[in-house]
């Protein structure tokens, strides 16, 4: 497997980029569209040059987008036709099953739908235009932006947070009052329930209590399993 990481200087059509995830947060797309509208002409050119889309050259030589899905969708909705890309690896010579195995091994694909269910790779959308909205991904993205959890290098960390919020906040509550849902999400994010998630930034007092409880339990286990100091040997 080659690792190229070279920019493709010729523009690549946005709708030729194959998504590697099924959903995105439309709230985050909206935020990126607003930011784009506020840039000057010079800023736009610099922005595009500094935000190349990372792709894997995959089946039939097609470019598989492994990040910046929200940006690509936002730019498409703003009327842009093309972006610059950076080729991370060329897996075009692999048969389909090996290709997807490698994509999964590197955490370059996340085939989960808007209900958090894993779907076949064949159901991944063909373009960013056809990606579906997941309101929990929007909630997780805004939660991170406001400091609810730290930015983390773990792949698809926002989706892990979305899955954490999914059974705790109703989807209709997010659509009815996003700010209220965000307030609830922030409280949940700071609780001990979320301490296993990437970027968790709950209070240090919780960690101290949890550590103390673990040590106490360990001490009890040693006491219960200890042999008497004097013991008959037969």
Summarize the structure.
The protein is of the alpha/beta class and 234 residues long. The protein has 9 helices and 7 strands.
Q: Care to describe what's here?
A:
With 234 residues, this protein is α/β, with parallel strands linked by helices. Helices cover 43% and strands 13% of the residues. The protein has nine helices and seven strands, in the order βββααββαβαβααααα. It has helices at residues 26-37, 41-50, 69-77, 96-105, 135-145, 157-165, 171-176, 178-189, 204-225; strands at 6-13, 18-19, 23-24, 53-57, 63-65, 82-90, 132-133. It is globular, with a radius of gyration of 23 Å.
Binned strand content? 5-15%
Sequence of strands across the biggest β-sheet: 1-6-4-5-2
Give the averaged pLDDT, no decimals: 88
The main pleated sheet reads as:
5 strands, mixed
Top keywords for this entry?
7 strands, two-stranded parallel sheet, 234 residues, alpha/beta, disordered C terminus, 13% strand
Topology of this structure?
Layout: E1 6-13, E2 18-19, E3 23-24, H1 26-37, H2 41-50, E4 53-57, E5 63-65, H3 69-77, E6 82-90, H4 96-105, E7 132-133, H5 135-145, H6 157-165, H7 171-176, H8 178-189, H9 204-225
Parallel strand pairs: 2-5, 3-7, 4-6
Antiparallel strand pairs: 1-6, 4-5
